[in-house]
């Protein structure tokens, strides 16, 4: 995100977008890409489906931005649309359920081993992935979005997951507790410290 | 990184960003959507999606029986478009549908266009308002309906929002 984008309020940013300022549009994408990607991945079985839902979400925003009356509501609109399009696609393509982290780790191409991918394959990362994969789908969706978009508000997260804003905090605590328990069971109470950073 | 974010979430965030970031090409597509910005209201008739057999039954996931063929319904003033989506076969769908007019009105003549990421596919309306559009690729698409007057001039243009097939 550019410095200008960071210091600019959403309403002012949208005014610039409406005037055709392409950099303002890029700032809008940068500001929201984490939570939108988190939402489409949370509800998509694979990356290809997520990319289709992602693409549709941004196209829909471009063609409906002039109809949105509340500038501050753009993020909520984006994640709601991302979730809705992902769910429709999952149903249309008869996908079973979103893939967990364990599956993702397996997707790392063994033929292109790099220091980064090697670190990701580390035991501690694998344990965390295993613990995460054992959580309920709802917990996986919640923690995934909170992990990739730590700046997202509870309102945005609620919109992304179709949950009431007031229920986010308690669910987050329950899901984190479940994650810690599963990591303890896997015999690695300190494994979170060892994930590549 | 935010102060106060639990260590587990930080670790998960690092892991997701390493193994599952938003792909660069997807971010590029999002940047490119700026070309589609609509800057004023009322730039055409909207074909509103009023039915979709792929709409989830429950808000948190894809559950319930899913029909083999996806059906969608779109409505605009005086018009209704019923659509049947079959496929994909070799990465492409076949769309069959019918454009319905108000009771007592004749079937329109014209063309249905499916716009997608790599271009467009077209299907001419037959005498009953039926149409077929072949080789529609998977991914985001939108439906456009152009109807003609008897002299061949454009009578109406209506378009749907993007949806993924």
UniProtKB/TrEMBL annotation, chain A:
Highest taxon, organism lineage: Bacteria
GO MF annotation: an example: sigma factor activity
Biological process annotations from GO: DNA-templated transcription initiation
InterPro entries associated with the record: RNA_pol_sigma-70-like, RNA_pol_sigma-70_dom, RNA_pol_sigma70_r2, RNA_pol_sigma_r2, RNA_pol_sigma_r3/r4-like, WH-like_DNA-bd_sf
Keyword entries, A-Z: DNA-binding, Sigma factor, Transcription, Transcription regulation
Domain RNA polymerase sigma-70 region, first and last residues per copy: 28-95
Family statement drawn from the similarity comment of this UniProt entry: Belongs to the sigma-70 factor family. ECF subfamily.
Protein name, per record: RNA polymerase sigma factor, sigma-70 family
Gene source species: Actinopolyspora xinjiangensis
From TrEMBL, chain B:
Superkingdom classification of source: Bacteria
This protein's name: Uncharacterized protein
